[in-house]
Amino acid sequence: MKGLMTTKNKKANISSPEKLTLGQYFVCGGVAGFANSFFAAPIEHIRIRMQLQGQFNSKTNFTGSYNAVNSIVRHYGLLSLYRGFVATMTRDILAFAIFFCSYEVLKEKAFEHNQGNKNLPMLIAIGSLTGILLWVPSYPIDVVKTKMQADDLKNPEFKHTYDAVRKIYRNEQLQGFFKGFTPCMIRAIFVLGATVGFYELSHGAIVS
Fold first, then answer.
1. CB neighbours of 117 closer than 8 A, spacing ≥ 6?
2. Domains of the chain
3. Mean pLDDT: which of 24-28, 52-56, 190-194 is highest?
4. Contacts (Cβ under 8 Å, ≥6 apart) of 164
5. Contact at 8 Å (CB) between 127 and 192?
6. Where are the Solcar repeats (predicted)?
7. CA distance 141 to 86
8. N or C: which terminus of the chain carries fewer CB neighbours within 10 A?
9. Within its chain, how far is the Cα of 190 from the centroid?
10. How far apart are CA 77 and CA 11, in angstroms?
């Protein structure tokens, strides 16, 4: 997608075609998030089922991931693996768009006058801040997705995404969309800080 944007900029005779605009980075990230959601939705669904089995009066007893997939498909059909897909897709489009857009902007501003010296602490800080920026708006959607994927498949409480949003708000108000927010932020700060920092460090070592 980034290559397509660069080609478009070249055709438009832009002086620096490789340098994408803020909107172009946002679109590239959103497309990546859309593609990612087709894989993330069933994988996260199975992960949540596995983590919750045996709890909250759950009657499921999967022996492993393959058994979980096989059992769910056999009893509820292939599409049941994609329960919560709309919420997953919405979350991923938003999160990936914000991630790539904010990451590129922050990196450019931080090293605007010193491109050759990308120190690790600054890169980690950029990754951590990017993690916060992407999760603040996308976390409520992630909560909706998780509740839908943890819902009973036979007699689901939530009929669809909007129904889940409506019922969560009715029963728990706004705070219902932010349960577990603090641990998520802590994880994002450390995980994305380390990911971005060491990715850039290794990338720099390879190209040099």
1. 111
2. 2-7+20-207 (1.50.40.10)
3. 190-194
4. 87, 144, 147, 148, 158
5. yes
6. 20-109, 118-205
7. 10
8. C
9. 16
10. 47
